[in-house]
């Protein structure tokens, strides 16, 4: 198992390293005579801790390449709030680099947060920007307001970041806040001298009573309603001063600014690997594989293959969420504690259930929480506050419950058909009578072998394997899967039954 673990980690490391190297080498220097160098950093898909770490590395790479401008190409529906906040802070701390957010299609939720943190925003035609708030959806699909106190607590760190970005980059704070908070209206008005400003409902009603102020023509009135989160298209974003212009591609943007693109840093093989293994269907399959291999490894230990498969699937189930910021240290501790209790139940006090039930509970709860991201105010705890956290919890519950159900059905099927397959027939307790193989249930009334019965190993016990026992009363012999309590036992060694129960036969060599 140690070798399997080392090989697995080496393969993952090589995949990530090769992908990153290939990505860097695939960048084509421009032959433009411009003096200013730019690096395009592509961010797409879910925003998480791995995205944050990747952005930090690529900003450093841009500096090494001598760039003074970064075009941050954002195409995302958002993701973890904490990751978005940390990426926003990272961009604001970035010195000696002018960061332009380029939105080819969408920068929603955490994507909008990151875009507003950049020095400026440029959008492709028909792109969208905004909708960056925790919301509650009713059963009919409409927005459902959260209680005022609860909403204020949830929105506080997000609002603060948007206000800071607005002040830093010259956006109107009401527009920035409208992307985060519902329950307010934002109007855009101008006076007879052409001065324009954004106001809320009360001020709009007061100022437009006379002839001095009126709504800005050719613009929505209001810009944002109490039941909506501000989301703007390219043309409106340019009107409102959120976007500095429009460009069809990042390359066209660079050309219009007289920038030479020296590298394009896009998703590497390692990132695509993480993205694939973060999806619910893949995690469901990994969970089923882990449960089945764990069952075999605990009940018939020493085969090697089940232990290796269980270890690899567990590494993927925990390693990918750990890299993306979903798995926390305490969740991994719970899973390891649960596995330890299961092993204690099977190998030390089998049949009692005192350790197995808490072990299963801890393990399943730990796995469930690896689907739940961190919240801005800390751990989600037993009652998450963000609707997105509740949704992640629901998705995790679906994967865990369906995975357990599928594992039970698959286990029943395997117990029926595995005895007919080479190699796997050694993992099932079987009875051979007159050339006919049937299932055996050691420990049941009238079944044998019983305590003290002797047999001979037909394979090496590592400590699991098989042994043949002779029934003098019935005049036949039967082959059983057994587990040695003394570690390794060589083939063709006489053994004696020391323990029978829970579908297991524990033997030791005859002295």
Summarize the helices and strands and which ones pair or pack.
Elements: H1 2-25, E1 36-44, H2 49-64, E2 69-75, H3 81-93, E3 98-103, E4 106-108, H4 110-117, E5 120-123, E6 128-130, E7 136-137, E8 143-144, H5 148-169, H6 173-178, E9 187-191, E10 196-199, H7 201-207, E11 213-215, E12 231-233, H8 234-240, H9 250-256, E13 259-265, H10 269-277, H11 280-299, H12 305-324, H13 329-347, H14 356-369, H15 387-417, E14 430-433, E15 436-439, E16 454-457, E17 464-471, E18 476-484, E19 494-501, E20 504-509
Parallel strand pairs: 1-2, 1-13, 2-3, 3-5, 4-6, 18-20
Antiparallel strand pairs: 6-12, 7-8, 9-10, 9-11, 14-15, 16-17, 16-19, 17-18, 19-20
Instruction: Tell me roughly what share of residues is in helical segments.
Output: 40-55%
Number of helical regions: 15
Mean pLDDT: 78
Distance between the termini: 30 Å
The count of DSSP E runs of length 2 or more, i.e. the number of strands, is 20
Oligomerization: single chain
Regions with little confidence, pLDDT below 50 for 5+ residues: 1-34, 135-144, 427-446
Structural class: alpha/beta
The major pleated sheet works out as:
5 strands, parallel
Strand content: 15-25%
Q: What is the molecular shape?
A: elongated
Strand arrangement across the biggest beta sheet: 5-3-2-1-13
Radius of gyration: 31 Å
